[in-house]
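Data's thin. Show one?
=====
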Amino acid sequence: MYPQVEPYDQGMLDVGDGQLIHWEVSGNPSGKPAVVFHGGPGSGSNPRWREDFDPDHWKLVLWDQRGTGQSTPPASDPATGMEHNTTQHLINDAEKLREHLGIEKWLLIGGSWGSTLILAYAIQHPERVSEIIIPAVTTGRPEELEWITRGLGMFFPDYFDAFQSGVPEEDRDGNLALAYNKLLNSPDAATREKAAWDWNKWDLATITGGDNDFVGTRYEDPVTRYRLARVVSHYWGNDCFLEPNHIFDNLDRLKGIPGVLIHGRNDFGGPLHTAWEVAKRWPDAELVILNDAGHVIMEGNSMDRAITAAVEKFR
């Protein structure tokens, strides 16, 4: 809807633990602050978000979570440890970034994993949140992670068979994300590369509703494949480093914060019932159900249009 303007400021913020996170700010330096929590986990920020925000009105912050995008050290390097990469670390990083930029309150926007991180951040720091917009609602519950790594096999039995066969036989009935994460941290490069390939084949199939051709997608790049698989399996294998139902049990802390939840009825990876349950427990949030949408935001589709409308609503 708007031109994708270049950032007027950017930098690397030292957040401790040897971690530097990359951030950028675009739009109006005196405008209303908004921040994007990107998905994945592990995908890195996407400049496409700038097109949803009027640069004359908004002060838009994008940042790369630990190990992703331009943040360092990169999770795409097998030598980079992941012990300082958890949900609480990322919540703390967002707060340090807000303070660094001198922002009192900001609108939070982001979907999929970004949704889980947004809700966890807002529950911990509700006084720093003006509004929330979430396309593709997730909360990181164990049952949601079990669904996306195993339950979806009822819709994709062929792809699931290949996915499950990618780990040793003794691990196939257990935590598949942890089993893959072990392979992705193997000292053997060939083992890591095959695990990244197998993991992302499953991931792409469930996101698209069956298409897992890497050609023309970010998954073509082996470095990106490895980073995504390693970071996602790290979080999913550890239940997103959240207590079960942590977000659901604390949604009352969002009272008074207006929100828009946008969810596609055809979202295989994150079924609608999660968004429905969040909306019931968060009365200040409006739920927009899109009958023709899935998990992916594409330029001009109904999800994209709904995001634009939500941003305009909170001008």
Q: What stands out?
A: The beta strands are 9-16, 19-27, 32-36, 58-63, 106-109, 129-135, 259-264, 285-290. The chain has two domains: 9-140+243-313, 143-240.
